[in-house]
Structures are given as C-alpha cells and as structure tokens.
Amino acid sequence: PDTEALAARIRTQHALQRPAPRPHPPDTPVTFLENLFTGRAVEYQALIERYERAAIGRPQVVTLRGEAGIGKTRLAEEFLTWAVAQGAETLHGRAFESGSHMSYQPLIEAFRPRLERENALQDWLGEAWLAPLSQLLPELRERYPELSLTHLEAAADRTQLFESLARLTLALANRAPLVLFVDDVQWVDSATLDLLQYAIRRWRESAARILLLVSLRSETLQPSAQSQRPNLNEWLAQVERELEPYHLELEPLGERDTVQMVLSMLAPPAADFAQWVFNETRGQPFYLMETLKDLLERGALHPKRQADGKWAFEVDAEHDLGRAVRVPSTVRAVIRSRLNRLSPNAFTLLAAGAALEHQLTFERLCAVANVAEDMGLPALDELVSGQLLLEVARPGDASAYIFAHHMIWDVVYTEAGDARRRLFHRRALDVLEADREPAAVLAYHALAAGLAEAAFRHSLAAGQEALRLSAASEAAIHFEKARQLAQEVSFAGVEFEPHLRDLYLQLGRAYELNGLPEQALAVYDQLSKLP
Predict the structure, then answer these.
(1) Beta carbons within 8 Å of 501's beta carbon, 6+ residues apart
(2) What 3 state SS string does 455-506 have?
(3) Which pTM value belongs to this model?
(4) SS3 of 56, please?
C-alpha cells in the first residue's frame, strides 16, 4: 500500500477529531478539578503524529521529560485514551522509587493483565517461547502445565527470554497498533532497560506497528543523579543506534493557558483570582491543581452544580487573596495542608499505603494500618473522594488503589515519621510474606523495618530470583546487601555463617555474568578464607 497516502488519510481523520474525554466523568468538585486538561495541545499533537508513523509500520520511541508534577503521566494517559479510541492496543507499566530492584517489574505489570484476558497464547507463541516467558509470569504454568522448566542464568537463556517478550509484542502489533507506556523509567532496573533495547531492535527489523512511550524526570539525566540507578543517558544513546527517540520536554503551563483554565471553572469569572493563582504557582500543573483543591477544602472556593451537570466555582468574597487564602509557598506545603485536614483513620490508612507504595488493596491497607475494616471504609472513601488515592479496577479481582501522584506519596511517607514507618513496614512484611510476594519486595520492607535477619534472608533469596531471570546486575545488588548485613550485624549475635558460602559463590557468579572478573575474583578470594 501507499504508506504516505495512508498516513495522509490518518492525519485528515485525526484533524477532525477532538481529544477523547477522560474515561470516568467527574461527579464531585474535586474530581472535576482533576479532569481539567489544557495547555498541552502541541505535545498532544506530537504524540498523535508519532502514533501515525507507528501505525504504518515505522516503530517509534518517545520520551516525555520534565520535572516532578509537570504533567507527564497525565498527558500520557490522555494520549492512551485517544489511542484506545483509534483501536490501538495499549499497555501501561510503572516503575516505583522503592523499586526493590525487582527484575522486569514494570513490564510484568504491563503485560500481566493483558495475558490474563488471552486464551490462545500457544497459538501466538508456541511452547518454545511460552516457557521462558513463564519465568516472568509463573501463572502461565498453571494454564499450561506442560511447559518445560527453564532456568535463564546463561546468556543464551537471557536471549530466549528477551526474544519471547519481543515476539509477544510483535504478535500484539499484528492485530492492532501497540502503544507500550513505561512510566517513571528513571526508576526501572537494568534488566528492563536491556530487554527494551533488544525489543526495539526487533521492532525495527520487523517494521512493527509499535510505539514505546516512556516518561522520566529531567533531573535524573544528570550524572550526579545516576549513581544508584542504571545510566539513562547511556541507554538512550544505545536506543538511538536502533531508532532515533523523539523527546518531548514539558514545561510549566504559560500564563495565558493557566489563567484561561482557571477562568473556565469560575462562575462568575474572577480575572484577578485567576491571575493570582498563576502568580502563586507559576503554571506548574500539579502545584496548581493541589492549590485549587486546598482552596476548595478551606472554603475559599464554593462549588455549585450548573444546569448542564458540570461544576462551577465561586470565589468567596470574604477571603483576602493576600492573607486568608494565601497559598503555602511550595507544593509540599500545600500537600501537608491537605493532609492536616484528614481524619485520624484516613491519615493512618494513607500512611500505610505509603509504606506499601504499590499493590494497595483495601484489606492490605487496613491490615498494615491496624484499622478495623468497618472503620477503614469511610477513611478510604475520604481518601478517594479527595483524590489522594485513585481506585483502579482489576478485571476479575477486587479493586486496587494507587497514589494520585508520586509527590503525595513522598510527603505522606515523610510526614508519617520514623517510628510509624518502621512499624508499618514490619506489618507490611508480615502481610506480603503471607501473600508470597517476590523476595525483592520482602527484602525492601525488612530493610525499612530494621529487621536485619529477615532482610538478609530475603536479600539472598532476591539475588537468587534475579539470577534465575538472568538479571545479573540486580542479583549483585541484592547479594551485596546481604553481604553488608552479614558484616554489620555479626557482632550482634546473629548467625549468618551457614549461608555465607552460598552467598559468596552466587555473588561471584553474578559479577562474572556482569562482565566484572576482578570483582568476582575478590569475592572468591574472600570465599576461600571462610572457615
């Protein structure tokens, strides 16, 4: 087919369409504020144009860059909603700051829900490629018990795993254009980046209809910010050898866009208030939205339902914009102001969620917070209605919850205090051990709780799990943490010697697989000196 003519037709169709609405219509004043979306027309159109290229077999890599709270995730979600309306397949995985160096975590999160809905995986991939994939998704073995057990420690087995996931993406793209969104890529593990780089090469070779969209914080590209994480600059340079990435740098909203957005929600219009909001927040989207919610909760804005069902807001005439309604000087101060108005149970539940950070369920939140479910339910309603937590539907399972923004999680975790954090991490460890969560997650909570023996045990197991997935960099990190724990707490009477020989053998192996023979030899030398 004439690809240029096809692209022209797609562009014409898109020019006639408006951006798709958010999937959940607002029904409270707070959710109405959350659904305001403006000021990103240029970036939004750029994403559409990149999708058009991918849709005709020219795979694309797009990075959304900007500071925390600038609106990267929001823009991506608006674009994903639009892409679904065009018939695209969309997958969304997110990395977390606590991360736990859990190998391939954002990709597992992205693909697991999709594969749970697919009944013909063998027809797509065949047993030879399903077997290595089942190392990432063990539930596949329950559906296909005939799959052979595969260990992925060798380089050839690592390639098998990478190829199996690449083939899965190609199979999805054969049905419809595929958009894979990895949020907060600055926190992903090295194994995920390696796999994505391999997949990008395969997409280019196959002229796949795939767009990879990643978001990252601009400041993490600075060398000083990359000491504890994979080097994103190096990864982007490697990706550029396969496909030239398209970089979208998001800036704060301009004065005009900010003022117009605020005016659009006010009835009657109050130009001085709209201008004041911009002057205070300088158009930083998250700061702006949290400020409006803070003013709403403080009674400086009065919501009124209009005849068309939408909300409008009237500025309280009794408030002096210079004093009584003054916005706290930073976005963190605004968030703290909102947290101070929560009921005790709501804050306790939110602090429990901050300790868990992800995979939040109502039962887990109540268990970690030690709040009875009858008392936890109104507290949860308070958090969801205030848009501090967002509810996420899970087909065939109970709903889960996520923090509305990473900055909210960060402030809540800080405000919880050291004693509460340690207690909640200890409870989280008990809950997650019972649920058989991955060892990397358990090691993170044990470390945060100050439980040295449990942290050693789970770090050792996490390293072993990473080696089984040929994620040697993550394995070395976990084994080194176990070695450090053994050295630090040995004077406290905790006995690790029975496990040390196994630890040093596997740590040396991890360094070998990482191509670091000198570090491996140093570890083996220490091993030879063990009693």
Answers:
(1) 527, 530
(2) HHHHHHHHHHHHHHCCCHHHHHHHHHHHHHHHHHHHHHCCCCHHHHHHHHHH
(3) 0.84
(4) coil
What pLDDT does 496 receive?
62
* Cα–Cα dist 471/192, whole Å: 9
Question: Do residues 188 and 94 lie in contact, with contact meaning Cβ atoms separated by under 8 Å?
Answer: no
In DSSP terms, which residues pair with 247 in a beta bridge? 63
Residues forming beta bridges with residue 91, ordered by sequence position: 180
498 CB contacts (<8 Å, ≥6 apart)? none
Q: Coil, helix or strand for 330?
A: coil
* Secondary structure (3-state) at 61: strand
Tell me which of 316 and 348 has the higher pLDDT: 348
DSSP 8-state assignment for residue 531: -
In angstroms, rounded to a whole number, what is the distance separating the alpha carbons of residues 439 and 432?
10
H-helix segments, 207-330: 232-240, 255-264, 271-281, 285-297
Q: Which helix (H) or strand (E) holds 391?
A: strand 389-394
Kindly state the helix (H) or strand (E) to which residue 217 belongs, with its residue range: strand 210-217
Backbone dihedral angles phi then psi of residue 94, each to the nearest 5 degrees: -135, 135
Q: What pairs with residue 401 in β-bridges?
A: 360, 391
What is the pLDDT averaged over residues 154-181? 89
Read off the tokens for 502.
């196994």
Which residues are CB-contacts of 43 (< 8 A; sequence separation ≥ 6)?
64, 75, 248, 250
Rounded to whole angstroms, the Cα distance separating 185 from 183 reads: 6
User: Residue 196: CB partners within 8 Å, gap ≥ 6?
Assistant: 107, 182, 212, 239
Number of Cβ within 10 Å of residue 119's Cβ equals 9
> % helix / strand / coil in the chain, to the nearest 5?
60, 10, 30
pLDDT digits (tens, 9 = 90+) for 455-489: 999 999 999 999 988 899 999 999 999 999 988 77
Q: What are phi and psi of 151, to 5 degrees?
A: -110, 140
3-state DSSP call for residue 183? strand
- State the Cα–Cα distance between residues 21 and 36, nearest whole angstrom: 10
Alpha carbons within 13 angstroms on the beta-carbon side of residue 411 total 19
CA angle 143, 145, 146 (to 5 degrees): 125
Residues ≥6 apart with Cβ < 8 Å to 337 = 294, 328
What is the Cα–Cα distance from 319 to 164, expressed in whole angstroms?
Answer: 61
